[in-house]
């Protein structure tokens, strides 16, 4: 079968690496891809949100399966576009409908869904211009810190944790009345602050049944010791030491099962990955957020730990046959360390030549490209997060050390990576 993977980050390189290992994968195309995905298949210069162009490519190249990496095409309705087009009826697609993708695209939609299905999450209220004054009153009596979330997609910046009531009221006003996050903050979810430790759990579902993939923990802050600005993710580890069997059983029973039951009960068209952003408070799991796709950089440790054939899993999901499937995990630890551009997550340069990519990595290390491209035959930087090395090990420390050693052989102007991924374990 010919497969088209949409996206261009480290997540997509890890997915591409895993997809081409399957005997069921004939040709793999990645649109638009990066310099790393070009080594797994054929990069195609088309945008994942240009649906007519995607259709044209799918029909001309006999694509049987489309895998959607990032959220944007999903939130914009790529799955509905495929379902409604007579020429695309036979093409399988991994990713939920536009309606279901609101679990990621609208915080209020996600909170209402969790409320309907009794899924543990922080207490909340939602406000917009029509009940602005009620919102201010609500904030004035709310315990601190208090969490303000722009309802819509805000490039990972739409969540504010406010330490004082004055700050909360001021931010609330800027979000709703001054469009601080544009259209995304016309509505704001105000929720209670939960204190605990976060992890990411992933399920693949056909809308009725599901399989749970290896869990992971990512490191979002730019600085060592989890300091400084938020980033897309500076590294990840899997498995997560505090997510023991008893805790994961609670996650399954209190969160994953009721979520999938909810999707089914409400007739969501949901074939694809569900990303549960969780927080462990005491011994109890709570949902911080849903995403309708895999995480990045979590995928760069989850795929290496997935021993099962990914194409078989995706076909089972797309054909509604996941109840017959189980998953094999690699028992080893996998850790990834992300190298970023100098200045990231602020302004940074692109197009800088990368050297050291031809080194022979140890057998238990993998190089995944994120923001890279090819200019005049030379691999260059093309994003904030540039590339990462995932390594296997018997412990987190051992795996992280291998990744750091490999990254030290790679250079470009301004290269930076955290040396302390997994430090707390
Ligand atoms: P989100 O975009 O919903 O994942 O939020 C971004 C980050 O804000 C999360 O990864 C958490 O670190 C933090 N956060 C969000 N909601 C809460 C909450 N209710 N309590 C504590 N931290 C939160
Ligand atoms: N690593 C978090 C995300 O992919 O949203």
Structure commentary:
The chain is of the alpha+beta class and 425 residues long. Among the domains are: 95 residues, 3-Layer(aba) Sandwich (Rossmann fold), CATH 3.40.50; 70 residues, ATP-grasp fold, A domain (Dna Ligase, domain 1), CATH 3.30.1490.20. It has twelve helices and 23 strands. Strands 12, 15, 18, 19, 22 and 23 form a six-stranded antiparallel sheet that branches. A five-stranded parallel sheet has the order 3-2-1-4-5, sandwiched between helices. Strand 16 and strand 17 form a beta hairpin. Helix 7 packs antiparallel against helix 8. The longest helix is centred in the middle third of the chain and has 21 residues. The two termini are 42 Å apart. Adenosine monophosphate (AMP) binds next to strand 17.
Quickly describe the structure.
This protein is α+β, with helices and mostly antiparallel strands and 425 residues long. Among the domains are: 2-96, Rossmann fold; 123-192, ATP-grasp fold, A domain (Dna Ligase, domain 1, 2-Layer Sandwich). It is 28% helix and 27% strand.
List the helices and strands and how they pair.
Blueprint: E1 2-7, H1 10-19, E2 28-32, E3 42-43, H2 51-60, E4 63-68, H3 72-75, H4 78-84, E5 92-94, H5 102-105, H6 107-116, E6 124-127, H7 132-140, E7 146-150, E8 159-162, H8 165-177, E9 188-192, E10 197-205, E11 210-212, E12 217-218, E13 221-223, E14 227-230, E15 235-238, H9 245-265, E16 272-281, E17 284-291, H10 299-305, H11 310-318, E18 333-340, E19 365-369, E20 372-375, E21 378-381, E22 385-393, H12 396-408, E23 416-417
Parallel strand pairs: 1-2, 1-4, 2-3, 4-5
Antiparallel strand pairs: 6-9, 7-8, 7-9, 10-11, 10-16, 12-15, 13-14, 15-18, 16-17, 18-22, 18-23, 19-22, 20-21
Bound molecules: adenosine monophosphate and glycine.
């Amino acid at each position: 079968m010919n497969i088209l993977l949409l996206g261009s980050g480290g997540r997509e390189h890890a997915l591409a690496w895993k997809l081409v290992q399957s005997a069921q994968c004939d040709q793999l195309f990645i649109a638009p891809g990066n310099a790393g995905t070009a080594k797994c298949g054929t990069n195609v210069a088309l945008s994942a949100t240009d649906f007519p162009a995607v259709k044209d490519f799918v029909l001309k190249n006999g694509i049987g399966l489309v895998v959607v990496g990032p959220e944007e095409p999903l939130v914009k309705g790529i799955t509905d576009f495929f379902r409604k087009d007579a020429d695309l009826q036979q093409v399988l697609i991994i990713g939920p409908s536009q309606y279901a993708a609101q679990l990621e695209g609208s915080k209020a939609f996600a909170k209402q869904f969790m409320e309907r299905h009794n899924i543990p999450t922080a207490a909340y209220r939602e406000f917009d211009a029509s009940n602005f004054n009620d919102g201010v009153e609500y904030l004035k009596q709310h315990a601190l810190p208090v969490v303000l979330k722009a309802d819509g997609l805000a490039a990972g910046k739409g969540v504010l944790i406010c330490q004082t009531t004055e700050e909360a009221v001021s931010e609330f006003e800027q979000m709703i009345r001054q469009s601080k996050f544009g259209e995304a903050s016309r509505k704001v979810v105000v929720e209670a602050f939960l204190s605990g430790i976060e992890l990411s759990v992933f399920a693949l579902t056909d809308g009725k049944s599901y399989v749970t993939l290896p869990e992971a923990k990512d490191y979002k802050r730019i600085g060592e010791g989890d300091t400084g600005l938020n980033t897309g993710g500076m590294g990840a580890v899997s498995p997560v030491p505090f997510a023991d069997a008893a805790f994961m059983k609670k996650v399954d029973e209190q969160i994953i099962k009721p979520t999938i039951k909810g999707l089914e009960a409400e007739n969501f068209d949901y074939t694809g990955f569900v990303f549960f952003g969780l927080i462990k408070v005491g011994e109890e799991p709570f949902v911080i957020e849903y995403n309708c796709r895999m995480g990045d950089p979590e995928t760069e440790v989850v795929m290496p730990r997935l021993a099962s054939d990914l194409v078989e899993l995706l076909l089972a999901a797309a054909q509604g046959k996941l109840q017959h499937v189980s998953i094999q995990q690699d028992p080893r630890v996998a850790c990834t360390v992300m190298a970023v551009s100098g200045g990231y997550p602020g302004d940074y340069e692109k197009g800088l030549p990368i050297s050291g990519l031809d080194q022979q990595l140890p057998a238990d290390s993998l190089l995944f490209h994120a923001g890279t491209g090819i200019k005049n035959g030379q691999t260059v930087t093309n994003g904030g997060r540039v590339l990462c090395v995932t390594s296997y090990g018997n412990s987190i420390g051992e795996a992280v050390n291998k990744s750091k050693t490999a990254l030290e052989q790679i250079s470009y102007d301004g290269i930076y990576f955290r040396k302390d991924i997994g430090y707390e374990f």
